[in-house]
Amino acid sequence: MQADALYEDLDKEELERLEYLADNIRCPMCSYGNLSSSNAPISSDLKQEIASLINQGYSDQEIFDFMQDRYGDYILLDTNIEDNRSIFLIPLVVLVISILLVTTYTIRKSK
Amino acid sequence: MTTRAFLIIFLLLLLSLFSFFAISLQKDYVQPVKNQEGKPLILDRQLYTIDGIKVSEDSLLSGKVILNVYASYCLPCRVEHPFLIEIADSKDVKMVGISHKEQVSATKDYLEELGDPYDFSILDLDGDFSLKLGVIGPPETFLIIDGEIVAHRIGVIDINIWNEKFEKYF
Predict the structure, then answer these.
(1) Residue of A56, A84, B148 whose CA lies nearest to A66
(2) If you measure CA to CA, which chain B residue comes closest to A26?
(3) Which of B11, B15, B88, B97 is paired with B124 by a 20 to 30 Å CA distance?
(4) ipTM score for this prediction
């Protein structure tokens, strides 16, 4: 079957939205890859379902929410900082401590 | 003096980081994908068994039902099959199979070869019912009590998984 025949109900703009969504939703069966990069059966099924959701008039955000509700945060490639603040804060804390350490050390050395 | 203080703080941080890693190594692998526990079972269309008989909503929504997603092409399903037969024989539970994206003839051959633990098997030729249920790929097992998914296993089910997640409902 040809690729454009699969999503014949969608117009050009909707196809672009489908592309965007498939690029930003992770394949639940894979370790990292998104739906467009994966040829797992679940990925083509999910792409088909996204197409039908677009047809039903869902917005992009609603589709992301729908997928997140079913498969969890893992499914979104774009991470939400609010969900896991400590992971983003630890490197900052380590950086600040190292800067302090280095500056105090060099100041003491130069005296 | 301050240098020494910072050095100690830094060493402590490093130590806590390493102990955090060491503790994390002891933990079991956590499935990144969320399972479907706590969600209702939604039946939005008429389902048929592999024998072409209509499935009544009541048979899935009332009482304890084990839904097992399987397919003849799925090798791990063969591994867990004897365990499913054991459960069907020893527990008072309705065992329902979902034949995932598979022709009826292949499913019937599979059940003939390995035995049939299921009360009936639902035909899911296009995989859409499984997809809406949140199935990623067979084998998967759901325990549904009065229409609510209380336990969901992604992957092969065995006695350890059963004792950990399913046994408490029996």
Answers:
(1) A56
(2) B33
(3) B88
(4) 0.76
